[in-house]
Known about the structure:
Blueprint (H helix, E strand, L loop, with lengths): L7 H12 L1 H26 L8 H4 L1 E3 L3 E3 L2 E3 L2 E3 L6 H9 L1 E2 L5 E2 L6 H22 L2
Antiparallel strand pairs: 1-4, 2-3, 5-6
Helix pairs in contact: 1-2, 2-5
Amino acid sequence: MSVKFEGLDELERELEKRFGRKAMQAITDKALIAGAKVIIEEIKRQLKPSERSGALINEITHSEPYWNGGKRTVHIMWKGPNNRYTLVHLIEYGHFDKRGFFVKPKAQGGINRAVKQGQRKYTETVKRELKKL
């Protein structure tokens, strides 16, 4: 899903001219990190029903902003001592147990729901961060 803004290229050029490329990248990185934190909080809220030890929720983190395909990107991931990244896809999509029965966890689809529900909060947060110029 994407959103198209008209006049965005002109706005980017004007801002780069006014502040410089490095300053614009720093501002963009700060906005991306703030937006990633909003999405992470929404994911934590959606995964609350599957919480037993809390490791699944505690291991959610984000990367530093990096270039991916010519765009600045922040990666949301599970990283920690309990290796919950190996279980995330099972909780998100469900799985079959050893008897062949499909297991539907309480938080099934929670990450996808969190991303969809957090899009508006994410864009508001990014806009707010960029307005701090």
